[in-house]
């Protein structure tokens, strides 16, 4: 009888633990003053412009307390707790729907996905991605800085006056639909960069990296080494 009670107790504990993991999470949080986003650990984020700032989370198979939401100044940080990020046995899904009045920067890493549903305008915009992250944005900016590596993928459209791109370690930047006056692009270690320079292109490629220009701009500077290409 004692062993049976122990077994039933253990089974009950296991079922409760499984129920906690399998729970769905839906919550909306009021935010203020956000102009930058940092997302990681496989979180999918959809960003749009709106008069009222807000953050809505929808998640499956993850406890609510493992979804970490932080604000550091004007930056919103979305990530998962360490235990959740390390446990690969459970298929989890975390989607964030972010509404901001203005967006000036995005950082994505560790398989995160960031997709814009508006065209974001700013004087300066900073974008970084790494470790398999995916970012897709439409921009209307004066100056754009892009840093990416480790297999990340970036798709950009819109307009910019000046664009600086640094890509490495198999990263891919498709900015062929981002019409820019001047572009400075550097691709290394198998990275691929496609741009649309209307006036001037400064290109550098090394170790199998490639820079290609869709636009009519002249190539002012072209530096290649170790199998890199600029055209």
Automatic annotation (TrEMBL):
Composition-biased stretches (Polar residues): 222-231
One Pfam family from the record: DUF2807
Domain Putative auto-transporter adhesin head GIN: 36-215
InterPro entries reported in the protein's UniProt record: DUF2807
Signal sequence, start to end: 1-22
Protein name: Putative auto-transporter adhesin head GIN domain-containing protein
Keywords: Signal
Chain positions covered by the region annotation Disordered: 206-231
């Amino acid at each position: 009888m004692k062993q049976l009670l122990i077994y039933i107790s253990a089974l009950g504990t296991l079922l409760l633990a499984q129920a906690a993991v399998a729970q769905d999470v839906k919550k909306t949080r009021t935010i203020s003053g956000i102009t930058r986003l940092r997302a990681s650990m496989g979180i999918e984020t959809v960003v749009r412009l709106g008069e009222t700032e807000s953050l809505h989370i929808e998640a499956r198979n993850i406890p609510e307390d493992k979804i970490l939401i932080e604000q550091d100044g004007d930056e919103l940080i979305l990530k998962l707790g360490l235990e959740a990020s390390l446990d690969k046995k459970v298929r989890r899904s975390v989607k964030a729907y972010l509404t901001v009045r203005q967006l000036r920067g995005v950082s994505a890493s560790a398989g995160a996905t960031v997709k814009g549903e508006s065209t974001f305008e700013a004087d300066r915009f900073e974008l970084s991605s790494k470790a398999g992250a995916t970012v897709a944005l439409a921009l209307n900016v004066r100056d754009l800085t892009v840093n990416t590596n480790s297999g990340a993928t970036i798709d950009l459209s819109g307009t910019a006056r000046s664009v600086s791109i640094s890509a490495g370690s198999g990263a891919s930047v498709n900015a062929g639909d981002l019409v820019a006056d001047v572009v400075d692009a550097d691709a290394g270690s198998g990275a691929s960069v496609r741009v649309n320079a209307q006036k001037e292109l400064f290109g550098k490629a090394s170790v199998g990296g490639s820079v290609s220009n869709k636009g009519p701009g002249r190539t002012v500077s072209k530096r290649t080494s170790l199998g890199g290409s600029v055209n």
